[in-house]
Amino acid sequence: MSDSLSKHAAHFNKQAEWCERLGSPFNAALLRGLAAQLGNGSVLDGLLSGDAPLQPNAADAGPLRVAGALHALVLSGKDEALARQYPTQRPDWDMTETLPAVYAALETHRGWVAAFLKNTPQTNETRRSIALLPGFATLEGPLHLLEIGASAGLNQHWDAFGYDGGHWTREGAPGAPVISSAWEGAAPALPATFQIESRKACDQSPLDIEDPDARLALQAYIWPDQTDRLERVRAATELARHRGISVDKADAADWLETQLAGTLPVGTTVIYHSIAWQYFDRQTHERASAAIERAGAGANETQRLAWLRFEPERVFVPNGSSNAHPVDLVTWPGGHRRVIAHADPHGRKITIAS
To answer: What distance lies between CA 249 and its chain's CA centroid?
Structure first.
C-alpha cells in the first residue's frame, strides 16, 4: 500500500470512531470496511489518488466525501441495488453484503462520484443551534447577525426553530424543525421574541437551496442511519426557502474585514459559527481574529460586539482537547470571554457551565 493510501486508511478509521461515538453504527462500519480494502487496487484507490485526489487530513475530509457520495446515490435513486442495502430499506443491514454493493456502485458511477468528491462536505447541522441558543439569549438587542462558514445558511433562522431540552421547550414557527437535545443544567432564559435587525452570512462554497443538487448534497452528508437529522434539515430547508436566505460567497477573513469596517451599528453585532473555524487555515484565523478584535476595540455600551463560538477546544485554547467542544462567548466593550456550555459536535447533549 502506498504511503498516501495508508494515511487515508488511518483517516477513514479515525472518522469511523467519530461516527460510532456520535451514534452512526452504519457509517462507522462502512468506513472501517472501506479502510480495510484500501490499497488493493479497487476503484476507491483510483478515486482517492487520481480521479478526485484528496489529502488524508481533516481539511479534505475524504471519508465524509466518500460516504456522502454513496448516500447521494441512494437518496437520488441513481443506484437501487445500493439503496436496498442501506438502513432506510434494510434496518438489519449487513456490511458484508453492503460493501460489494458499494464497490459496484463506485464502478458504475465512477465519473459522477469523482465529481461529487470535489465538493467540500457541508452538513449545515441544525441541531448545533440549540448549543448557541443560550449565548444568543444573553445578548441585548437589536441583534445584527454575521455567520461565517454558513454553508447553505439554514441556521440563519435559528430563532424560528422549535426547541426541546427535555425539561424545557420553546415553540417554533409553523413548519420549522424542532431541535431536541439532552440538556443538563438550568433552562436558558429566552425572551418572548428575539429582536433581530439584520442577518448576513458567508461561506467559501455556499450551497444554493433553490438548486436540487445542492439540496441533495446537504442531505447526503447526513449519516444514513440518522433519519431524525435528515428530517430536520429538510424542514429547515423548506423554512429557509419560504423566509428567504442569503449567503455570500466569500472567504471568512475577507468578509469580516468588510462587514466590520467602520462604525458598529447601534445594538449588538454578533459574529457566530459552529464547527467551521477548524476548517479555516492559519492565515484566515489570524486575519479574522484581528478584524474582530479591531471592531471590538471600537465598541461601546450602545454599539456592542459579540463573538459566539461552538468549536473544538483546541482551535482557541492552547493545548486544548480535540474532544471537548465548548460554547463560548466573547463580548465587547471589554473583550470578556466566558464558557456558556459544553456540547458534543452534533449538539445531541448540552451541559450548561456552572
So the answer is: 17
| Bridge partners, 217 (sequence order) | none
Residue pLDDT, tens place only, 96-140: 999 999 999 999 999 999 999 998 888 778 999 999 999 999 999
Q: How far is CA 252 from CA 236, 249, 332, in A?
A: 23, 9, 20
Q: Which residue is associated with the grid cell 445558511? A: 153
CB-count burial class (<10 Å; 0-12, 13-18, 19+) for 79: buried
DSSP string for residues in 30-70: HHHHHHHHTTSS-HHHHIIIIIS---SSTTTTHHHHHHHHH
Per DSSP, the three-state class of 304 is strand
The structure's pTM equals 0.85
**Cell numbers that stand for 74 in this block:** 441512494
Mean pLDDT on 165-180: 95
Cα separation, 72 vs 219, in Å, equals: 8
Whether the upstream peptide bond of residue 142 has omega within 30° of 0, thus cis, is yes
Q: Are 8 and 36 in contact (CB under 8 A)?
A: no
